[in-house]
Every structure is written in C-alpha cells, then in structure tokens.
Write a structure and sequence with these properties.
With 317 residues, the protein is α/β, with parallel strands linked by helices. It contains 12 helices and 9 strands. The termini are far apart. The mean pLDDT is 92.
Length: 317
C-alpha cells in the first residue's frame, strides 16, 4: 500500500499557465520563492511565447521550468502539458501538484498551511479561501454542506464566514482554479485537465472529476489573494464577453454530457441571467447566448473543440 506523505516529506510542484502576464507572474513567483516549505519546483506554461515571461521564470532559479508550446493552449491545455511534464520529470518523488492562476498572490506560509490542513483532513483535493485586493470573498467552491454553502455566498470576508461556520474543512464538488492542491495519486486516477475547453470552465470540470472519486476540503483558514489585472479596453471587453459565453457553453456541455458534470445544471440558469444582466439584453447577446447553450447542450461540444469553437475563432479575429 502506498504510504501517505507528511508535510515534511511532501514534494510539491506548482504549475501555472500564463499568457503575457509577466508582472503578475513575477509577483507570484516572488511569493513562492520565500514560502516556508516552498515548492520543490515551479512549472510555467508560456502560452504567449513571451520573453518577459521566460525571464520571470529564469529569475526563480534552477527550480523554475518554462514550457513554450508554440501556440496558445488555453489554461486547461497549458495546465495539462505542465502537469504531464511534472509527472514525467519527478516521477514517484512527486506527491502534490499545486495549480495556481498567474494573478494569484501567496504568503510565505500559504503552502505549508495548505499542506498541513489538507493532510490533517485526509483529503486528496484542497481549495483555500480566495479573496480580492480588498480582502473580500470573491471566488469559492461548491460546498456540499448547506450551512457553509449559504454562509460563503453571504459573507463579505473570511472573518465573517469563520464567525458563522468556524475554520474547519468542508467538502466541495466544483472549484475555481485560482489555487487547487491535488495529490499525484488522485491525478493518476482521475486524469489531467482537459485541453478542449479553450477558456473558463476547465477548472470546474477538473475539480468535479477529482471530487467524484476523492475526498476534498475547502480550507477557510488558508487565504490566497486573486488580484486580476485592472482595466479593459473596448476590444478586451468584446473578448471578455465571448469568454463568458464560452464558459456558458462549457457549463452546458458538462451539465448534459458528463456524468460528474450534472451537478452544474442548477447553476446554468443563474449564470445565463447574469451574462445578460452584465452585458445587456440585446438581440445580439440573446442570440449568442442561445448559440452557446445549443452547441454545448444539444450538439455536445465544449468551446475548444474544433467542431464547436466559433466563440474562440471570433475572439481571435
């Protein structure tokens, strides 16, 4: 029987997919470099073939590995390549993969606390509390207990949540990919992130697949900040609209075509309504939304599949 690692014996590799966000990546790597129990290695997938990105990884020293696929694989495809590289390079030494968004910010004790809490809870998948620049809760997993689920949607800060529910671990189903700690054991069984979602939703599908077979824990007393780049130009706003539609197409695909994704069906109406409320109830938006839901739910293609990637092609024009 394979023995479970301790926090002292854990061999953690951080994997980050990045697309021309050298300042954000540099900030994240600076935090990782001073971490107690720092990652044994960091693998960055440079989807943008970007010199500043490569320089940022080089500054991390010999533990940094920069992979340049030569094309934009998207977050899911990039993470897939990075995790495959880590599994092949480090073999049986590898105990955990720590997936991070390039615009995440970690503190010196984030990894050690994440490891300690997940090992104490006896889980294979762990997600921390994620907050924005003002310390407000902005991203959270799908908690499987009713009281914590209600609290996480209502609380403005981690302190408010902990006051209502305490700091104990809570199992979850789906999770955003800002920060996700996964054991190598779970990866070998559940598989790697999919590369055909283009953007948005690949983290949800991956977490759903993992938690269908392995124990999970949301750890509210471990906090990671998510500081997204500010400011969007007109072109970026159009691209952002198409990316949200891609997420809805992926949600529809998961809900109707993946056994572990059926738990997402209840989120589809609310997310569709929020898209129209945010981007406008125009004939164009309603038509685009209907198209995305049709391709995902009826035709059965995620947004990165060549047979259903109209949104990706539109965003890249």
């Amino acid at each position: 029987m394979e023995s479970s690692p301790t926090s002292a014996s854990a061999f953690v590799v951080a994997v980050i997919a990045s697309f021309r966000r050298a300042p954000e990546l540099t900030r994240l790597l600076a935090g990782l470099s001073v971490s107690s129990g720092a990652p044994a290695a960091v693998v960055v997938i440079d989807n943008g073939d970007d010199t500043p990105t490569r320089q940022a990884v080089e500054s991390f020293g010999s533990r940094g590995h920069c992979l340049t696929p030569g094309t934009n694989l998207g977050c899911g495809g990039g993470l897939r390549q990075g995790i495959k590289f880590a599994l092949a390079k480090f073999g049986e030494h590898l105990t955990h993969i720590w997936i991070l968004d390039d615009d995440a910010v970690v503190e010196a004790d984030t990894l050690s606390r994440l490891l300690d809490r997940s090992l104490a809870a006896g889980v294979e998948v762990a997600s921390p509390m994620v907050v924005d620049a003002f310390g407000r809760i902005g991203w959270f997993p799908g908690l499987l207990r009713s009281t914590p689920w209600k609290a996480i949607r209502q609380a403005r800060t981690p302190a408010e949540y902990v006051e209502r529910c305490g700091p104990g671990p809570v199992p979850f189903s789906w999770s955003p990919g800002v920060s996700l700690l996964v054991t190598a054991r779970a990866l070998k069984v559940a598989g790697l992130p999919r590369g055909d979602f283009w953007v948005r939703g690949e983290d949800l599908e991956f977490a759903l697949r993992l938690t269908a077979d392995f124990a999970s824990a949301f750890l509210p007393d471990v906090v990671v900040r998510h500081l997204q780049p500010a400011g969007l130009g007109a072109t970026d706003k159009l691209t952002e609209r198409l990316k949200v539609l891609a997420m809805l197409q992926n949600l529809a695909y998961m809900s109707f075509h993946l056994p572990h994704g059926r738990r997402m069906l209840r989120t589809l109406p609310g997310n569709s309504f929020r898209f129209l409320r945010s981007h406008g109830w125009t004939a164009s938006n309603v038509s685009l939304l209907a198209r995305a839901l049709w391709v995902g739910a009826v035709r059965g293609y995620p947004a990165g599949d060549p047979r259903g990637n109209e949104l990706q092609r539109a965003a890249e024009q």
